[in-house]
Specification:
Blueprint (H helix, E strand, L loop, with lengths): L2 H17 L6 H8 L1 H20 L3 H21 L4 H13 L14
Length: 109
């Protein structure tokens, strides 16, 4: 399945939960707790993705990155944004000429 299709499907479910809350839904739990809880989960999942990557456990990287993308999808919904907004920004950057970062003498950004 194509990445964007999966994100759209997940986002549709998340948007539906905003309009039609479902008892016992984790998504609705996050909406009820608010932006601070959602941001906390985004931070946790980002950190867990970094740790899994550092531990060189690809199965765990996939698991944690999936959690991160889900929580990012919830954050987008709360902010009234969508993955289309993100994809448009990425496309804009791709088309921009001279978008290379300057490196210092050690090759670091």
């Amino acid at each position: 399945m194509e990445l964007s299709n999966v994100l759209y499907e997940v986002s549709k479910v998340i948007e539906d939960r905003k309009v039609n809350p479902k008892e016992g839904s984790y998504t609705n739990y996050l909406f009820d707790k608010g932006i601070d809880k959602i941001l906390k989960k985004v931070g946790e999942e980002a950190t867990e993705t970094v740790i899994a990557s550092k531990n060189d456990d690809n199965k765990e990287v996939i698991y944690e990155m999936s959690d991160l993308m889900y929580h990012l999808s919830v954050l987008l919904a709360v902010k009234g944004l969508s993955w289309d907004d993100v994809f448009e920004e990425l496309a804009r950057r791709e088309l921009k000429e001279g978008n290379l970062k300057k490196f210092n003498t050690k090759g670091e950004i």
